[in-house]
Amino acid sequence: MAAMPRSPLVGSDVHYVASGHSLGANSSTSTCRAAKVTEIKNASTVSLVVFTPRGTLFYADLTYDEGKAGGTWHWPEADGGQPTSSIYPSSARPPKKDTKEGTAKA
Ligand SMILES: [Zn+2]
User: Fold this and answer.
1) 15 C-alpha to ligand 1 centroid (Å)
2) Per the domain annotation, does 92 fall within a domain?
3) Which residue in 2, 16, 22, 83 is a FRET match for 77, CA 20 to 30 A apart?
């Protein structure tokens, strides 16, 4: 079994691979769908709620597959299993107050 970047947790954001014909897509290629883990069966088998443009779907006992076979899940490509702390800039601070006493009124 291929090594996983990390183990899933309930509530983890992952991708579900939909078969093109099953969810209204026109192509026959597999499509990544946003999904959230709802249950952990084991390190590579989970249940998901899948978010599609037309609604949510629920699946149980899905296996992890980096090869993105239809009906499997994987970690989001942009995520790559890495922490996402970079979306919060460390330099974010409240703006400085720019007050000058005694010059507010003409
Ligand atoms: Zn994906």
Assistant:
1) 5
2) no
3) 22
Domain count, the chain: 1
DSSP-based three-state secondary structure for 71: coil
Per the structure block, which two tokens stand in for 8?
């899933």
Name the residue range of residue 23's domain: 9-76
CA of 64 to the centre of ligand 1 (A): 11
pLDDT 10s digits, 47-57: 999 999 999 99
What angle (nearest 5°) sits at the alpha carbon of residue 80, between those of residues 79 and 85?
50
How far, in Å, is the centroid of ligand 1 from the Cα of 66?
Answer: 9
The 10s digit of each residue's pLDDT in 75-93 is: 998 765 555 444 445 555 5
